[in-house]
Amino acid sequence: MQSSIDHTTHIAHLATADPGVLSRVRKDARGTTAVEFGLVAGPFFLLMLGIITVGLHYFTITSLEYGVAAAARKIRTGEAQTQNMTVASFRQLVCDEAGSYVACDGNLVIHLKRGATFADLDPPISCLTNGNLTPSGNTAANAVSTYSGAASATVLVTACYNWQLGFSLWRSLWSLLSVTPTSGDKTIISATTTFRTEPYN
Questions:
Q1: Is the CB of residue 179 less than 8 Å from the CB of residue 116?
Q2: Is residue 63 over pLDDT 80?
Q3: Of 53, 60, 71, 118, which has the fewest beta carbons less than 10 angstroms from its beta carbon?
Q4: Is the pLDDT of residue 54 over 70?
Q5: Is the distance from CB of 60 to CB of 163 less than 8 angstroms?
Q6: Element containing residue 136 per DSSP (H, E)
Q7: What phi and psi, each to the nearest 5 degrees, are found at residue 155?
Q8: How far is Cα 122 from Cα 59, in angstroms, rounded to an integer?
Q9: What whole-number distance in Å separates Cα of residue 72 and Cα of residue 90?
Q10: pLDDT confidence bin for 49, thresholds 50/70/90
């Protein structure tokens, strides 16, 4: 106790003898940069991860949309039908056109639907059923023409993709904010195109 009193008295004496002592203590900024970096680094890196994840998300959407549009052109022109392309081959074509950001595995499901008029294509196929990707109603080994119909038919091509890229935290947050179908921490990306096939016969 006596030591504490003596220490306080000593500081008071220094302050009285040299008023600049306390001023120098207040102005001592050593370690400030480290403290400020510690406060800012966490939110900064979290923001960066978020930006990267959102960028990957939109890049994958664009890739899938391009893949579906490019592959569907084979059906629209009748090339897929006249060459007896199978559903499995058409799915692979979507993957090839979409590029490496879309994995050609169980996370990608392709749906083909036909009708005499565009009204017959309503309602469109939902990508989610009971929280999981809706299984394709198209048998992989069957010809595309089985589901796309003959010339001048209306066709709906839908690709549903369970996006696995990005960071899990941001996928979960994106699932809460996204207008695309979601389930838990899954983010389901979909791409759709509809058209009338050309009179290729």
A1: no
A2: yes
A3: 118
A4: yes
A5: yes
A6: none
A7: -130, 140
A8: 28
A9: 8
A10: confident
Over range 72-95, report the average pLDDT. 96
State the distance between the two ends of the chain, measured CA to CA, in whole angstroms: 104
Number of CB atoms found within 10 A of residue 182's CB: 18
Q: Which residue has the tokens 């695309």?
A: 180
Residue type, 165: L
- Crossing angle of the two packed helices 87-98 and 32-76, in degrees rounded to 10: 140
Q: Is the dihedral of CA 15, 17, 23, 24 positive or negative?
A: negative
Instruction: Report how far residue 29's alpha carbon sits from residue 32's, in angstroms, rounded to the nearest whole number.
Output: 5
What SS3 state is found at 49? Answer: helix
Q: Go through 100-134 and write b for each residue having 16 or more CB atoms within 10 A of its CB, e for each that does not.
A: ebbbeeebbbbbbbbbeeeeebeeebebbeeeebb
Q: How many other CB atoms are there within 10 angstroms of residue 96's CB atom?
A: 13
